[in-house]
Request: fold
Amino acid sequence: MIPVRGFEGRTVAVFGLARTGLAAARALIAGGAEVALWDDRPAARAAAESEGFTLTDLSTADWSAFAALMLSPGVPLTHPAPHWTVERAKAAGVEILGDIELFARTVNAAPEHKRPKIVAITGTNGKSTTTALIGHICAQAGRDTRIGGNIGLGVLGLEDMHGGAVYVLELSSYQLDLTSSLKPDVAVMLNLSPDHLERHGGMEGYVTAKRRILLNQGKGDTAVIGVDDPWGARICTEITAANRRTIVPISASKAMGRGIYALQGVLYDATGERAAEVADLTRARSLPGRHNWQNAAAAYAAAKGLGIPAEEAAEHLMSFPGLAHRMETVGAIGRVRFVNDSKATNTDAARQAMSSYPKFYWIAGGQPKTGGIEALVDLFPRIEKAYLIGEGAPLFAGTLRGKAAIQECGTMSAAVAAAYADAAASGQEAVVLLSPAAASFDQFADFEERGDAFRAAVQRLGQAAAAKGAA
Reply:
């Protein structure tokens, strides 16, 4: 873990005792701080106690005794209404921060020769794939690489830092809202589209949170900015005018006079005197589709920003094995292939997967986002049939009715079984695609658990088909 510095001998309140909160508590204690832990959920409190933590009911605590409140990113800071711990902290003049801010302050307090390199990645879609891809390139290039943040381990649970380490961190808008001191050597903003608007009070609040990843960069740092959406293009123009850091625009839809872009699956580097072909991404099996070409452009630009030679970055790009839960083939039964895209928690992410197949049997639903699936109507002709699960099933059914065949299945196992039966009966090569276009929290702890449930259902079907064949 990374012991947190700056709170030695003082008490930090920690609210939210899931992965991030408990990792922060351990790191604060390791750095010499006292902690006061609480969660509104009895199960989370019980899990913390089982690990040996002593709990403090923050609703009755004396907040003047706290040096700071470490707030887990899932807890509302401002919208739709501040959480009660936020109100208590503000009333007592207690600073509110997140685990990324604790990490940033610890890095900033270290002697310069002991500070690691930091690559921070945000955006509406593609964060996890790009984070994993950059981590893969760095590791293959021989760098001591740690990957975490909003993917895998919480940042403070990663191995302790040294001057030769590279931290590759996926950052959500929730995490960035609680961060003010982070200074990434390379900041990547992939793309922006409406998402989590209820948590940020609208699109402008969401964009403001995302922009915090660029807050402290200066000379010698690199900003990689996707310019295929109006918000990214505007940010790129604004920070270019500031003329402080190295700015690398990226695109997967157009050639640029300066930047890194992909056209028809070919990656080009136009950061020198003329555009040079870097790689044929159509040969990278784990990076299909235009959205992944943008991810590849970002990863290549980030690697160059860390000083990895262009040829080496391109080589390692092509050997990327892929990411779980993002257009991941989890099995095949006969002529039916099953693709796990559980990471698609909004319509923009689902569009990327749906656009990759001419026809598919679609498993969708969960906790719906604002607007449901209205934005995907142009892709409905590709749907052989939709199998709807979770809280959003009635809403999605209403949108699809008359435009595609539908079946409200309720559960993941029922949806997988029904989709397989129909796909197999077609007698054709077929794809069963889980790309929910909704959050997972109505039925699952997170998108990973949802994807694992899909994988398990596919495995059960495969075992049953094998047993039937052997009988």
Residues 116 and 164 are 6 Å apart (CA to CA). The first strand starts at residue 11 and ends at 15.
